[in-house]
Design a protein that fits this description.
The complex is a heterodimer of chains A (134) and B (286). Chain A contains 3 helices and 6 strands, in the order H-H-E-E-E-H-E-E-E. Chain A is α+β, with helices and mostly antiparallel strands and 134 residues long. The N terminus of chain A is likely disordered. Chain B is 13% helix and 23% strand. Chain B has a 9-stranded mixed beta barrel. Chain B is globular and about 60 Å long. The chains are: A alpha+beta (134), B alpha+beta (286). Chains A and B meet through helix 1 and helix 2 of A and helix 1 of B.
Chain lengths: 134, 286
């Protein structure tokens, strides 16, 4: 029973943490929910701004060693703060792993759902606007 | 029953119960607290002195799914497969009395996934969409001044002012079309009734893209059946877009420890800078 409650508590914790969701523009017009990604790279820039915080990562292609600068959209600063972020959560030079959905236009751009800080393993929800039934 | 199976079932029940508690908001674990009231008995639709709290406006994307049926329940409450409807256009929403042009516009907005949603331009929600755009909101009653303010964190950090002094709407050209319209209110027992006219045509009724015209007349009803719940109902009366008035309704939960924060949508709206029209030309900068 103790295990049961622990499992339940973890599940609820995850749901609770993901609760507040901001909405600004159409998710589906810009991103493709069926094209999910998981990418790791080094933070080069953070725009902690409305209506969406955008951060940039240098991502190295393991095969070709070519480095591409990607950008990722998250929620607004107020939505992110309600999900446990501050303006200093991501710092230039940090190695992070991002999961989310790719842009429809094929550019190196995506909508971030979760961000993991590789140094601590801390996982944060990105206040994504992806709630629309796809 | 095996021990493992029993454990699995117990887990499922506990998770379901906790999920329900979570879904109903942070106050659901506490006993249902009664409607707060002022000394004269008028319901207090806002904070109790000395406490925190804001209304957590839900993300109501498609008002076509929020029309109460004969049983009083909306399609969303009946547990429809897709709470927001499936982007099936006007044909999928027989309860919405579209005029033909409104049907065509709605189908267009459905097909392109609300690409040209005015909220994507950082323009304010209009009409009932104020109560469907998911940012916290406060209600401040000023009985001595005969006004009620509603303050919205998003979508564009706006407020509305409802005149409770019995004045009529301005007539003719004195009624200047605006995003939020001209709102007058009165109390019908425990229900705040707000009558709104004078909307411009720069907004949509909801994220899914139900259109409206400047003939839009909205009658809103706010009740607070208990401390944790604001029930919202809006009559959408727009003979320019719909063949008869229709009503939408939903609950807005109280967030007991919430407070408003700043949200200035216009700061860095890259979506708009990149937005192109159906012919691939930039929407801005031409």
């Amino acid at each position: 029973m103790r295990t049961t409650l622990l499992v339940a508590a973890v599940v609820i914790g995850l749901l609770r943490a993901a609760a507040p969701v901001a909405a600004h523009h159409s998710f589906a017009a810009e991103f493709d929910a069926s094209k999910s990604f998981k990418l790791t790279g080094v933070v080069t820039k953070v725009e902690w701004q409305n209506p969406h915080t955008i951060f940039y990562l240098d991502i190295t292609d393991e095969r070709t060693k070519k480095v591409t600068n990607w950008s990722f959209e998250m929620g607004s600063p107020n939505g992110l703060m309600r999900n446990g972020w501050t303006r200093n959560t991501l710092k230039i030079g940090d190695m992070v792993t991002v999961e989310g959905s790719l842009a429809r236009d094929g550019s190196p751009y995506g909508n971030a759902r979760t961000v993991v800080l590789n140094s601590t393993g801390k996982r944060l929800f990105a206040a994504s606007s992806q709630t629309e039934a796809q | 029953m095996s021990r493992a199976r029993s454990l699995a079932i117990t887990s499922a029940i506990v998770i379901a119960a906790l999920y329900t508690a979570w879904a109903q908001g942070p106050t659901a674990n506490r006993p249902v607290e009664p409607t707060p009231r002022f000394a004269d008995g008028t319901p207090n639709l806002g904070r109790v002195a000395g406490e925190k709290g804001v209304w957590n406006v839900p993300y109501i994307q498609n008002m076509g799914m929020r029309i109460p049926g004969p049983d009083g329940k909306t399609a969303a409450e009946r547990g429809s497969a897709a709470e927001n409807g499936g982007r099936g256009g006007a044909k999928a929403e027989p309860d919405v009395p579209f005029l033909p042009w409104a049907r065509g516009i709605y189908d267009y907005n459905s097909r392109n996934n609300s690409r040209y949603d005015p909220e994507g331009y950082c323009l304010p929600p209009g009409g009932p969409r104020l109560m469907a755009t998911p940012y916290p909101m406060e209600i401040i009653q000023q009985p001595k001044h005969k006004r009620i303010f509603m303050v919205f964190e998003g979508a564009t950090h706006i407020w509305r002012e409802i005149y409770m002094d019995g004045r009529p709407h301005p007539q003719g050209d004195e009624l200047n079309p605006t995003y939020l319209g001209h709102a007058v209110g009165h109390w019908d027992h425990d229900t705040l009734v707000v009558d709104v006219v004078g909307f411009n045509e720069n907004t949509w009724l909801d994220y899914y893209g139900h259109p409206h015209t400047d003939l839009l007349h909205v009658v809103e009803k706010f009740t607070r059946p208990n401390k944790a719940t604001l029930h919202y109902e809006a009559l959408i009366d727009d003979s320019g877009a719909y063949s008869r008035p229709w009503t939408v309704a939903w609950n807005i939960p109280w967030s007991a420890d919430g407070e408003l924060t700043e949200y200035i949508c216009q700061e860095n709206n890259r979506y708009l800078l990149k937005l192109t029209d159906d012919f691939g030309q930039p929407v801005l900068g031409r």
